[in-house]
Amino acid sequence: MIPSPAECFQRMRQYAMLDNIRNHSIMVARIAEYLAATLNAAGESLSVPLAVSAALLHDIGKTQCLGNDNDHALLGREICLSHRYTELAPIVREHVVLQNGMPANGLSEKEIVYYADKRVTHDSIVNLEDRLAYILERYGNNDQRRHRAIERNFVICQQIEARIFTKLSISPGAMAGAVEDFHSHLLQVA
After folding, report:
1. What is the residue-level pLDDT of the chain in tens, covering all 190 positions?
2. Is position 190 within any domain?
3. Domain region containing 36
4. Is the pTM of this model over 0.90?
5. Residue 97's domain is classified under what CATH number?
6. Phi, psi of 119 (to 5 degrees)
7. How many domains are contained in the chain?
8. CA 150, CA 6: separation in Å to the nearest integer?
C-alpha cells in the first residue's frame, strides 16, 4: 500500500518527527516528485506517488534514533512494514546507502529518493559536493574509515546523478530553480 501524502503527514505527527526533519523530508519529496514526473515525460516509468510518499517518510525513524547508535533507515523500514507500506519499506531502508550499489540499467523510485536526499541539506537544495562536505563534517566523526565509506557512497550518487540528467534537459545546478517552478500535483504541505 502506498500512503497518500496526507497519511504520510499523519505518520510524521504520530512518530513525533521534529520540524527540521519534517521540513527536510518535504524538500526531498518535492525533488522526488519533480524528478519522477520529468523523467516519466522523458520515457521512464516511475510511480510518482511512490517516490513522493517514500521521500516524505524516508526519515520517519530518525527522531527516535537521535542520541543513540540505532540505524534510522532500518527503523524507518520497520515502521513502514508495521503500517503495511511494503512498497515504501525497501526505499526507506536504502535511502542512506544503496545495498547493492547502482543498478545496471534504468532508474527506480529507490534511486530517485536516495539521490533527492543527497541533494538536500536541512531544507535547502544543494549540490552534491556541498552535501558531501556536510555529511563528512556531521557524521564522519574524524574517522578516516567512515570518511572513505561516505565518499564511496557519494560516488554512487554522482553516477545516479549522471544517469538522471542525461535524460533531462536541465543540468544538476539548475534543479533548484526547476523544483521551485514545478507545480506539485500530489504534495500539499499539511
Report:
1. 999 999 999 999 999 999 999 999 999 999 999 999 999 999 999 999 999 999 999 999 999 989 888 989 999 999 999 999 999 999 999 998 888 766 667 789 999 999 999 999 999 999 888 888 888 787 767 778 877 877 888 888 899 999 999 999 999 999 999 999 998 877 765 5
2. no
3. 5-181
4. yes
5. 1.10.3210
6. -100, 5
7. 1
8. 33
